[in-house]
Amino acid sequence: MAADLLTRRGGEGEPLILVHGLMGRGSTWSRQLPWLTRLGSVYTYDAPWHRGRDVADPYPISTERFVADLGDAVNALGVPVRLVGHSMGALHSWCLAARHPNLVSALVIEDMAPDFRGRTTGPWEPWLHALPVEFHSAEQVFVEFGPVAGQYFLDAFDRTATGWRLHGHTSKWIEIAAEWGTRDYWQDWQSVRSPALLIEAGDSVTPPGQMFEMARTGCPTEYLKVPEAGHLIHDDAPRTYRQVVESFFATLPGAG
User: Fold this and answer.
1) Alpha carbon 221 to chain centroid distance?
2) Is 101 helix (H, G, I), strand (E, B) or coil?
3) What residues contact residue 116 under an 8 Å CB cut-off, 6+ apart?
4) What is the mean pLDDT of the chain?
């Protein structure tokens, strides 16, 4: 059932759905839930190929598949929602808003851009393929990923009796990212009509200047660059992230 794609995390009022990035999971938003649940009825969403290592998905990988799946989850709530997306989840959120504007009332876009054409996954494929399927201690995870991303992945990975296991397959994650190097999503972005907040990391994965350009085109937007933050802005600069998201939602029609 479409409703099973969402996990309710608490709060009351207008729905707010948290949409994770590549190699993420809904459970990675745990540190933001205490304040986000004051802003509405909060749900987390787990994207295809991120729902557990043993969970098979029969569909070919494509942005259209992701957007359709997210749309099914949103549609099951029966009312327009606010989407808070990180990276891959941000892309799929704005594509859904463009293609089904009746489903989305507002967007938060964290460190994602529309055009990665010509960029390949080659530089990081050897590292990704070399990851162990299972980490046997939290320390091993922190050594591999560092303190911020390490905690993120501890929250994302499958918990087993003997450690933490990758919650998907690296070959699929590479295939997902590789598609972004073959096409752009400017038309989708320029078709969005709901208000949007754009948050760019100082140490960003996005091509330089694209998020700023996004703020100048298409829907009504607010834009903030967070110089001290890496790609996981919501974990790397949590106070700044909270402040800007709360302020943005407070400006929306019907807020407060």
Assistant:
1) 18
2) helix
3) 180, 181, 184, 207
4) 95
37: pLDDT strictly greater than 50: yes
Q: Specify the CATH architecture of the domain 2-122+184-250.
A: 3-Layer(aba) Sandwich (3.40)
Give Cα separations from 103 to 56, 91, 193, 206 (angstroms). 27, 15, 12, 27
Q: Which contiguous run of DSSP H or E holds residue 65?
A: helix 63-75
User: Would you kindly state where each structural domain of the chain is located, as residue ranges?
Assistant: 2-122+184-250
Closest listed residue to residue 199, CA positions, set 187, 217, 211, 216: 211
pLDDT of residue 3: 57
Place of tokens 């949590």: 238
Q: Give the pLDDT score at 1.
A: 46
Read off the pLDDT band of 172 (50, 70, 90). Answer: very high
Give the side-chain half-sphere CA count within 13 A for 110: 26
pTM, rounded to two decimals? 0.96
HEC profile of 91-123: HHHHHHHHHCHHHEEEEEEECCCCECCCCCCHH
